[in-house]
Amino acid sequence: MPSAGSASALPLADRVEAALADAGAVRRIAMFGGQCFMVRDKLTIGVFGARQGAGLLVRVDPDRGHELLDRPGVSISEMGAGRRMGPGWLRVKAFAVADEAELAFWIAEALAFNADTTRRGHPQRP
C-alpha cells in the first residue's frame, strides 16, 4: 500500500476496500453504476467513475453533513439531476481523496455513522 500522504496508484475502490479491511462484515457490491461497500448490511460508502463524477458517495451523520460541506470537493449528493439526497449523503470528488489521510478521514466519518446507527438499531435514515 502506498505511504500515508501520497497519491495512490490503486483504483479508488481498491483503496476504499483496503481501508475497510478491519471494519468487520464488509461486502463490495455493484450499485448505482459504481461499487458500494456495505458494512454491517448498511450502505456506508460508494465509489463512482467519471460518468457519475469520479469520487465517493459517503453516508455521514446528517447533523454533521452541512459542516462537512466546507471541505474541498464536497457536495450533497444527487440521485439524478436536481434530486438532492440530503445532508447525510455526501459526494466527495476524487481529487479530494487522492491523499491517503483524506481518504482515511472520509472512511472514519462513514464508519462512525454506521456504528452509531447499528448501535441504535435503526436504519440510516435521518
Structure description:
Residues 1-9 have low confidence and may be disordered. A hairpin with a 2-residue loop joins strand 1 and strand 2. This protein has one domain: Aspartate Aminotransferase, domain 1. The protein is 29% helix and 25% strand. The chain is built from three helices and six strands, in the order αββββαββα. Strands 1-2-3-4-6-5 form a six-stranded antiparallel beta sheet, covered by helices on one side. The chain has 126 residues and is of the alpha+beta class.
Please specify the SSE layout and strand pairing.
Layout: H1 12-19, E1 26-31, E2 34-39, E3 42-48, E4 55-59, H2 62-68, E5 74-76, E6 89-93, H3 100-120
Antiparallel strand pairs: 1-2, 2-3, 3-4, 4-6, 5-6
| Count of the domains | 1
Rounded to the nearest angstrom, the distance between the terminal CA atoms is 35 Å
Class inferred from helices and paired strands: alpha+beta
Strand order of the largest sheet: 1-2-3-4-6-5
Q: Could you give a short account of the major beta sheet?
A: 6 strands, antiparallel
User: How many separate helices?
Assistant: 3
The residue ranges in which pLDDT falls below 50 over 5 or more consecutive positions are: 1-9
**What characteristic shape results from the CA principal axes?**
globular
Helix content: 25-40%
Rg value: 14 Å
Oligomer: single chain
CATH topology heading: Aspartate Aminotransferase, domain 1
CATH class: Alpha Beta
Q: Note the beta-strand portion.
A: 25-35%
The CATH level-2 architecture is identified as Alpha-Beta Complex
Beta strand count: 6
Element order: H for helix, E for strand: HEEEEHEEH
